Amino acid sequence: MSTEPHLNDTIHRVTRRVIERSKPSRDAYLELMDIEADRAPEKSSVSCSNLAHAYAGATDDQATMKAGGAPNIGIVSAYNDMLSAHQPYGRYPERMKVYAREAGATAQVAGGTPAMCDGVTQGEDGMELSLFSRDTIALSTGVALSHAMYDSVAMLGICDKIVPGLLMGALRFGHLPALFVPSGPMPSGVPNKEKQRVRQLYAEGKVGRTELLASEMGSYHSPGTCTFFGTANSNQMMMEMMGLHIPGAAFIQPGTKLRQELDRAAVHRLAALTGSKERSLARCVDEKAIINAAIGLLATGGSTNHAIHIPAMARAAGVIFDWTDLSELSSAVPLLARVYPNGSGDVNHFHEAGGMGYVIGELLDAGLAHRDIPTVWDDDLSAYAREPGLDGEVLAYREVGESGDNTMLRPAADPFSADGGMRLVEGNLGRACFKTSAVDKERFTIEAPCRVFEDQPSVTAAFKAGELDQDVVVVVRFQGPRSNGMPELHSLTPPLGVLQDRGYRVALVTDGRMSGASGKVPAAIHCTPEALGGGPLTRLRDGDMVKLCATTGSLSTTADLEVREPAPDPRLAMGVGRELFSMFRMNADGAEQGASPILASAGL
């Protein structure tokens, strides 16, 4: 229960409801973590053969390990050099081992996890593995930490499903302290609005692949996170809001001296946290921290993907959070930031204008976020309202001050919007999410005949044939987690954007996902129950009138769905490894619960 005197009434009410709803599962989780902490073996009681295997590869640290007493930090890395954001991680372990020795500790790479780039698989068959890569990462994290040789954990991951997966896995070892170590965004390239313009010209056939590739390469050009405010950068925002970073670490670029000092501070802090029950991951990720993550998402206009990831991460910590909670929070949390695709500037401009330090300071001062959460750094979130810098060679913090760009960041007293721009819409077509922060208010309500499709290529073909040149609600069904792994449908944004620019009233309704790059087209996404198995979308037919209204929170059709037979479920797609994930699809639960097969199978 909150003891913060100035906390907003709605945030207090939602927090109280989440705490009360979660009490049985949260108590069971904390009890398990206490048991795990109590039975964690002292190194002196572990078989010498076991220890020898664990120490054999640590050539430079063997003597320290054999002597005992030094904290050992486990590194779980999602490194690969196909993801620009993760490319810098290649050299991190050797540097982190040096930083650990500075603090009288040791560090070992506990294990690696897969790491997909959704930007590479957009519109391709591989995208159907994307969401369940999160659960695979959680399982890989569990395998890495199962060796029980670590006193704390450094998590190396940034992008879309990777941070949620790392957190879900690490929370099952929540008796240990854990800290996320980002590597930062790439420098700004081609302005995002220009990139969007070229994409739409290509969709209209007005430029070719040469021009399109030049534009894309100008945007995604070097190591570091992509600079638009998509799921990857929303992940970093949430880790700050939950107090799981070194303060201000989210958006410092790779290869800089400040980045290096933040990384050093992360390792030193993990060494200092050894044995701390109060700073264990289980205690840091509580109901208030989950609420803070949602508040940050709303205040910054972050990725719609987190309407799925936040409930899943919460469940791994014994916390139950749903879309009603998210929508109610949205009614109270003002939109403080406009970062592309909700504005013209990117995350580098956002950081230069004050960034996360400014956002957190405004939220705390206005009573719009929980200050009283334990963080990896301090007793509450206050330290995260400052910005990092260097005092000579040493990491130092300073006050943020006023926004450096009122077109990018505004105070809570004068926001871009009075609400956070994430609405729950529901009706006889189910429950879905509508991100209003990127959509003009005149498009909050769309009522038009629908066209029903069962895959993205069919939509693109209909667009090219001119069949969609009208007011239309495009319905793309059988895209849910149990059907095909719930791929992002971001490749539909350019053609639908073209139709909208031609003057038509256009919307998208789907049981699939869009992404953090979702833009100006109204969309009801993550529709649940999904079409597979007879959900309401499966009873829609071409020409049915569909109404989507963010203002009233409705998603409905005038068609009599009860008298219709559902469309037949599609056959399982094969190839690109999709058949290997059939067990995940079969066991996945609904989008609002987090669409997680591993949590559902574990009864969490």
Anisotropy-based shape: globular
What distance separates the N and C termini? 23 Å
Rg: 24 Å
With strands numbered from the N-terminus, the spatial order across the biggest sheet is 7-8-12-11-10-9-13-14
**Tally the helices: what do you get?**
22
User: Based on helices, strands and strand pairing, what is the structural class?
Assistant: alpha/beta
State the share of residues found in helices, binned by percent. 25-40%
What is the averaged pLDDT score?
94
Sheet of most strands: 8 strands, mixed
Beta-sheet strand percentage?
5-15%
List unreliable stretches of 5+ residues: none
How many domains? 2
Oligomerization status of the protein chains: single chain
Number of strands: 14
Overview of this structure, please?
This protein is an alpha/beta fold. The chain has two domains: 13-42 and 71-187 and 222-399, no CATH class; 422-570, IlvD/EDD C-terminal domain-like (Glucose Oxidase, domain 1), CATH 3.50.30. It is 37% helix and 13% strand. The strands form three sheets. It has an eight-stranded mixed β-sheet. Strand 9 (445-453), helix 18 and strand 10 form a beta-alpha-beta unit. Helix 4 (92-102) packs across helix 11 and helix 13 (287-300) packs antiparallel against helix 14. The mean pLDDT is 94. [4Fe-4S] cluster binds at residues 159, 226. Keywords: 4Fe-4S, Carbohydrate metabolism, Gluconate utilization, Iron, Iron-sulfur, Lyase, Metal-binding. Catalyzes the dehydration of 6-phospho-D-gluconate to 2-dehydro-3-deoxy-6-phospho-D-gluconate.
